[in-house]
Structure formats: C-alpha cells, structure tokens
Design a protein that fits this description.
Elements (H helix, E strand, L loop, with lengths): L8 H27 L6 H11 L1 H10 L9
Helix pairs in contact: 1-2, 1-3, 2-3
C-alpha cells in the first residue's frame, strides 16, 4: 500500500541530486579551503567565491583552487 504524499524511489533520487549532493559538495569545498594554506589573500577570495556562488564556486574551487594551495 502506497501512502499518498510519500516520495518513492525516483523522487528520492531527485531529492538526493537536487539538494543533498550540492550541499555536501559545498561543505567539502568550504572545509577543504579553510584547512588549506594559500598565498596572500587566496583563502579569503576562495571562501567568498564558495559562499556566494555555492554550487559553481565549489566546483571551481575543487577543480582550480586546490591546485593553488601551498604545497608543504
């Protein structure tokens, strides 16, 4: 018996891809950026990009910004 209003399989996948994965990507990018060392104001700029452009900023940081970190 299916309850009215309860999401099923396809709806749960849609919710996962629409809400959960972007939030997880944003959190991972923000934590990684805050833990890393950058030259001069690099960290501040990347944090602002990640915060004000959550999905695009997270993708940009994970593809471009991680290469700009100071290697230890």
């Amino acid at each position: 018996m299916k309850l009215i209003g309860m999401p099923g399989g396809p709806e749960l996948l849609f919710i996962l891809f629409l809400f959960v994965l972007p939030v997880a990507l944003w959190i991972i990018a923000l934590i990684d950026c805050l833990k890393s060392d950058f030259e001069k104001d690099g960290k501040v700029i990347w944090v602002l990009v990640i915060v004000f452009l959550p999905i695009l900023g997270s993708i940009l940081y994970l593809t471009i910004g991680r290469n700009q970190r100071i290697k230890q």
